[in-house]
Amino acid sequence: MLTLTSGEINLWIASLLWPLTRILGMIASAPLFGHASVPTQVKVILGVLLAMIVAPNLPPMPAVEPTSYAGLLILVQELLVGLAMGFSMRLVFAAIEYAGELASATMGFGFASFFDPNTQGRSNAISQFMSMVATMAFLAVNAHLVLVAAVTESFTSLPVSSTPLSLAAPLELARLGSRIFSAGLQISLPILAALLITNVALGILTRAAPQLNIFGIGFPITLGVGMLTISVVLPYLNTPIQNLFNEGIEAGRRIPRVAAERVPAVLAPAPPAPATQ
Hints:
single chain, mainly alpha, elongated
């Protein structure tokens, strides 16, 4: 007769629950996986399947009861690690969408905004177009598979443990977040330069012929120049977008390694002073 102890049952539950929590955290925050159009049932089923594949090859789990305080702490830590890894790739998409925002505002498309169900906010047409281009490139280079592989590799660099995470992991996300503005500006720079030259030419034309209605001809010209520039520049965005994908994936891989590091000495409590006679 097969008999199981409570410790063995808790170990089986923990060996699936904690990896599943990290994987579901990545799926919830990563682009494409965590999109609002993907049903929740699909996300959960995908996470369970990945956890069942990964769990047998993981290092031994800590001997902690999942329902205890230490077990809940491990659960929260695994969720935070998964969310951080998925969010690192989401920041890359935010940089590409920011490039569309800059181009759209300069072209005069600032009024053409609509509701974005993914971000629960307002977005414009060019930004949504850049987001779709990034999504197709994300699938074309198999970055979604590389992201899943990075999550499975993270269990080696950061095994499931009750040890508190390092404070350097949020700083890694903040460093990557600063790339949103610089990368977005770099991607949209050719479009902004072409529109700047167009606006300067319209200003000179207005000074030379004041009778022209600049408000009547300016908008179609800037809109046409912007669309033409996007069509010309779009084939050359392959390399910058791939570089951003690589940077986001490498940041996602660094987060578990950084979180596994010990607390720096500057943040650790100072040792007690020796007693004086």
